[in-house]
Amino acid sequence: MTSSQLSSAAAKAQALADFINNSPTPYHAVHCAAQQLTKAGFKEIRERDSWSSTLQPGGKYYVTRNGSSIIAFGIGKRWKAGNPISMVGAHTDSCTLRIKPVSKKSSAGFLQVGVETYGGGKWHTWFDRDLSIAGRVMVKDGKGGFSQKLVKVERPILRIPTLAIHLDREKSFEPNTETELFPIAGLVAAELNRTGESGDGKKGDEEATQVKNASDEPFQPLQAATDRHHPYVVQIIAEHAGVGVEDVVDFEMVLYDTQKACIGGINNELIFAARLDNLGMTHSAVEGLITSVESPNALDNDSTIRLISCFDHEEIGSTSAQGAKSNFLPAILRRLSVLPAAQVDSKQARESQDTSTAYEQTLSTSFLVSADMAHSVHPNYAHKYESDHRPEMNKGTVIKINANQRYMSNAPGIVLIQEVARLAKPSSGSTATVGVPLQLFVVRNDSPCGSTIGPMIASSLGTRTIDVGNAQLSMHSIRETAGVYDVERATRLFASFFEHYGDLESKIIID
After folding, report:
1. For residues 229 and 237, what is the distance between their CA atoms, to the nearest angstrom?
2. Which residues have C-beta within 8 Å of that of residue 437, sequence separation ≥ 6?
3. In this predicted structure, what is the pLDDT of residue 220?
4. In what helix (H) or strand (E) does residue 362 lie, and over which residues does it extend?
5. What is the pTM of this model?
6. Taking Cα atoms as reference points, which of 426, 509, 508, 406 lies closest to residue 467?
7. Which long-range contacts (CB under 8 A, 24 or more apart) does 54-58 make?
8. Which residue ranges form the domains of the chain, and what is each CATH number?
9. What local confidence, expressed as pLDDT, does residue 198 receive?
């Protein structure tokens, strides 16, 4: 590769590392994505509002749900009701540990925090890491209402220690997730010294005189946050939210590794990071959409809508109000499918357009690229992979195929994505040639196979779908590995998909 190509790929990879570092939770990921989209000229809209006078051909918009899922789109100026929508779908969540609703614990002189497993993580990798907390907090807004604040505590405050090898001679390490996965937050004695309490739990004389009669306190349906959690944990959360402890009503906090994502490898060809599955594809989807519309006239001759959808809760089955199985995407597609064409000037003419089957027409001509990270061949476990399907990092985005429909890729979709990859333009300022490489992957017949949002969306919408993703190692670990050059290539692939789908759709028709 030339130095220009290397610098362009490195810049894209560093942008992904920055995105991951700023996105310890789906709430933060959506917030960061929204900031990127806003900077690129996308306008925020809300589901609860009417869009009839807001959305216009040539416009760029985004909408969020629950603060943890986001859909963004650009409308071609030649759009008319019933036309195709090109879509890239990803997910914003990753396997993690979530603080329980009542988390205050202590044992053997240690303060501990109760946590709940989220998704199918490789939990042994969470031991002996410098952990902190992040999430959203619901706080009183001072006007009788409540608002959401995002919190990310930068310093390590938690740790899950392993048992010394001298006390544990088991050959395998399979911790009990209910009894052996509680992190320590500090020492009871240190907390007593901080608060001025004695070992028997009694406060000093001055504080004791201020205890109020229970009948004087207002009724609370639930215990206060400082009763359900260690008070100092709540205080830290309140400080980072910029509110008083008394204003913290509830929160959703997860644990994350404070070690930053970084570029590694002896030739700086690798990315070492948490949450590559699936912030890697979320980031490339956002960047791909933005890249495809960055030219002022990018949408002038487009008769389609270019759309990304990044969902929460994929790691736990997507069954939620904001998951891929929800009505979030179908509801947005229904509203978009009936948008009138720009050239219909009069209000009466716009209202007279026949849109009775526009939604069904749009679904039948649209296409979804389901983007979720893929498995790279592991050099120490090469026998676990089908001998002719061993994707490598930095060799291009992987097309994932499964005869049992765990992935949605099929021949027409592969033909389409090949054409998209062949037409992919170099990044701005790069001397790379046109086109990006692709790889193929199937699991062994004697191996289990994961799945993605692809099958659930395809089966509910009937929309043509393909499953792709960049290759990575250590999926679902607290620390994962991917290739630097694949980041730029995936972004270029998605941008090419948006730019060329309108022309390619009519050339690959399988009814």
Report:
1. 11
2. 395, 396, 421, 489
3. 86
4. helix 358-365
5. 0.93
6. 406
7. 55/336, 55/339, 56/342, 57/299, 57/339, 57/341, 57/342, 58/299, 58/300, 58/342
8. 3-93+274-342+356-505 (3.40.630.10), 96-166+176-199+222-257 (2.30.250.10)
9. 59
